[in-house]
Amino acid sequence: MADALLSAVVNTILDNINSLWLQEFGITGGLKTELESLQSTLTTIQAVLLDAEEKQWTSEAIKNWLRKLKDAAYDVDDRESKSQSCLVDGTNLEFLNLFEEEDEQYEDKEKIVNVLFNTRLRDENDLSIYAICGMGGLGKTTLIQLVYNDERVERAFDLRIWVCVSDSFEVIRLTRAIIESIDVSSCEIKELDPLQRHLQERLMRKRFLLILDDVWSESSAKWESLRNPLMSGANGSTVIVTTRIEKVAHIMATPILPIYHLGYLPEHDSWLLFKQRAFQRESEGNNMKLERIGKQIVKKCGGVPLAVKALGSMLRLKRKESEWLSVKESEIWELSDDGSSILPALRLSYDNLPPYLRQCFAYCCIFPKDTKMDKSWLIELWIANGFVPPRGQRELCEIGDEIFNELSWRSFFQDVKEHHDGTITCKMHDLIHDLAISIMRFECYMFDIIKCVDISHCHSLKQTPPEISCLAHLLELSIFIVRKDRGCGIGELKELNLGNELCIKELVNVEGSTEAKSANLMRKLNLKSLSLIWGKNAGEFPDNEEEVLSSLQPHSNLLYLQICGYQGLVLAAWMIEGYRVSRH
């Protein structure tokens, strides 16, 4: 899987060679001849890559050959991309509703809701902890979402809280996450003791439902520490835990409550789910040969809904018998795994993506597990990194929107939601995220490619992504929007060695000099142009604007400085000499 992106990179280079920018700059003579020769060579290479990528699973020699070729391809792509600049424009995004509630899930949901309203159990336990156990891909999170959003459940609890735990069971982080879910704002308390006291106060005499999704830790001591402040809730408060590990379920669950084991889909239900995806509105019996092959593919999925949906979605546009047979008979099914069929199925689904979809999907591994990814920002990042192929005169954002929708339909994205402000977000199932990580395991180039993000033409952009400091090799960032949300503060710029142009917006959200200094502008030697924008209206901390500006001193190498919306009475001392200032 390590080099499965190579064909996508070669494809991108070919697209760029064929793009209109060559014509616009009048490439002629010897350079044009060299480019045509390079295009011919790359086309030949591309012809054998797809077959080689598929065979790398069973041939170490082919895998090593691909890795060597990969290094050369990335070098060509990096050199070629330096001759272009990527300008991204915002566009209106359509909401794609992919949420499904299957009959089997409905039955499971009703059983769990009935347990929540079991008066006998509720009277005997001030805090009931209910565990749902099952392997990855069975739909534990989807099932609990149905319970969480059920109208009866909404009416029964004063508070509903959702926290994704994943493989890092840090009591301080989880306690803070619970508080932030209740308050719908960030919590700045650092120490465990005051955090727990604050949580006790927020839960006092409140009947709450807490979802702890995807728990891996088998430490009973950590669970006891997290549970202690939860005991302050009102009688009838409930915690629902989802986990893949039976031992975790037994450690956390209330002994009197049975562990709910989420089973595999029966073969008949698996076929119905597959058929819904693969054949959509086609009448049953229209293609008996494909249906016969499809039923054999469904058996290989082993009753795992995520695998069934992924392969069903992948095959919906394939109508050749040979294409379906290649999936059924693929050697990937024989790969060693954890005993389940889920990862081979997901690999098959990935292998059947067009090259540009592979790149866009694998890129998402840079986000931590369970991250809410903003659709518009994700598309802009794809475009900025050259992953979205041009198609005639169409806008790249429009093509990026189609890519997002296609990846969502194929189950690579889930929890696609439109928020009240029009923002659309999505997540990746943790197994899908694992797949992206496995693809990129040896692809450190990804973090080298992300050196420039030019979004200066995205006038409708409302925020930059959380924790952008994780892109350690980022050299250019045209816009950074300061927000109070975690991971969006100005301190995210501290370790980034940014150059060229930088515009920092919404400085009204910077509290004072300490926070402003954390941007570390003085050490950004390559920064040539800096814009400091406070916003249209007076900020929440107007009295601090002078000290904030004073603490945003850039390096003396700066050539241009622009200040907008500043309401201080005096300029900073560092601005008296050495800077060409434009104040608006």
UniProtKB/TrEMBL annotation:
- What are the NB-ARC domain coordinates in residue numbering? 119-283
| InterPro entries for the chain | Apaf_helical (IPR042197), LRR_dom_sf (IPR032675), LRR_R13L1-DRL21 (IPR056789), NB-ARC (IPR002182), P-loop_NTPase (IPR027417), RX-like_CC (IPR038005), Rx_N (IPR041118), WH-like_DNA-bd_sf (IPR036388)
Which organism is this entry from? Corchorus capsularis (Jute)
Q: Which residues form the R13L1/DRL21-like LRR repeat region domain?
A: 490-575
Pfam families, alphabetically?
Answer: LRR_R13L1-DRL21 (PF25019), NB-ARC (PF00931), Rx_N (PF18052), WHD_DRP (PF23559)
- The residues covered by the Disease resistance protein winged helix domain are 366-436
For whether the record's keyword set contains Secreted, the answer is: no
Gene Ontology BP, a term: defense response
Q: Which domain of life is it from?
A: Eukaryota
GO MF terms listed in the record are: ADP binding; ATP binding
Q: What is this protein called?
A: Disease resistance protein
> Disease resistance N-terminal domain location, by residue?
9-78
Keywords attached to this Swiss-Prot or TrEMBL record, sorted alphabetically, are: ATP-binding, Leucine-rich repeat, Nucleotide-binding, Plant defense, Repeat
